[in-house]
Amino acid sequence: MHSEKLQSFVLSTLDFGESDRIVTLFTLEHGRIKAFARGARNSRKRFGPALEPFARIDLQARIKTGLSSLMQADIISIYPAIRTDLGRIAHALYACELVEVMTPEGHPLPRLYRLLAVYLDRLETEAAIESDRRFFEINLLNILGYRPALETCTRCDTPYGAAGAWQQDGGEPVCRFCCAGGRQLSASTLNVLSACLKTGTFGQIRFPAETLQQAAGLLDEAISTHAGRRLKSLEFLQQVS
Questions:
Q1: Which residues are CB-contacts of 212 (< 8 A; sequence separation ≥ 6)?
Q2: One domain, residues 48 and 157
Q3: pLDDT-based confidence at 44, cuts 50/70/90?
Q4: Highest mean pLDDT among 37-41, 149-153, 166-170
Q5: What CATH number is associated with residue 230?
Q6: How far apart are CA 153 and CA 186, in angstroms?
Q7: Is the per-residue pLDDT at 181 higher than 80?
Q8: Kind of pairing between the strands at 68-77 and 4-16
Q9: Cβ distance 38 to 20 under 8 Å?
Q10: Is it the case that residue 144 has pLDDT exceeding 70?
């Protein structure tokens, strides 16, 4: 079996035995994979610091179903500025864990790969802010097909209009005719989230305070529903925010 050269982000690592490591990677070519890195904790020549969480790397690997074999990894960027700031670290770890729990294994997602790359580049040069996190989340949900309906009711297909929508359990927005309680989502909130999908540039969309709060509630609920478990990095993110 020949090895392949891949572009990848390190999503997480797990020590195995005395010197090995199991690495979860998000590759441009194969999507999310797990790889066994033999001697990774001792071999500075083959791996060095390349297997740190949220590092961007070039790697050589033998791709197999289940657990691939990682032969070598070379650093593209370890994002040194992110690693000097707890807030940036928390947001980077959260983004990586979100990709890990939300994506299918072995399925290429080049748009999501580029989104993660742009977000980490943003965190490397700018302070971590809530608006950027929410921008990342709505675009991730959109790419994966989990985006909440922002224009028309999920039950009767009626446009929301100026009345906005009401958020049901599970993050489902519905119109006022199908509403059975829930939290209101203003038309402004829905419009801002829709605008996030029309630009690939962080920082172009402004979230006013009330809009940010409503968007956060909607996105948190949608992510919780589809992730299936609470993200470990979320508690750390909440502590440092």
A1: 130, 131, 134
A2: no
A3: low
A4: 149-153
A5: 1.20.1440.120
A6: 14
A7: no
A8: unpaired
A9: yes
A10: yes
Amino acid found at 183: R
Q: Which residue has the tokens 């994506």?
A: 103
Does pTM surpass 0.85? yes
Task: Please state whether beta strands 31-37 and 68-77 pair in parallel, antiparallel, or not at all (unpaired).
Answer: parallel
Q: Pairing between strand 4-16 and 56-62?
A: antiparallel
The answer to whether 67 touches 34, Cβ cutoff 8 Å, is yes
Q: Among 15, 48, 77, which residue terminates a domain?
A: 77
166 membership: H or E segment, kind and range:
strand 165-167
Helix (H, G, I), strand (E, B) or coil at 109: coil
Continuous segment of H or E residues that includes residue 217: helix 209-227
Find the domain containing 68 and state its range.
4-77
Pair of tokens at residue 51: 């297997």
Which of 46-60, 80-94, 173-187 has maximum average pLDDT? 80-94
Rg of the chain taking only CA atoms, in angstroms: 19
Pair 133, 51 in one domain: no
H or E element, residue 69? strand 68-77
Which domain-ending residue is among 50, 77, 104?
77
Amino acid making up residue 97: E
Amino acid identity for residue 78 in this structure? I
At residue 105, φ and ψ (nearest 5 deg) are -80, 135
- Integer Cα distance of 99 and 172 in angstroms: 21
Rounded distance between C-alpha atoms, residue 73 and residue 155, angstroms: 48
Q: Distance of CA 147 to CAs 102, 156, 172, 190, 226, Å?
A: 12, 17, 10, 12, 10
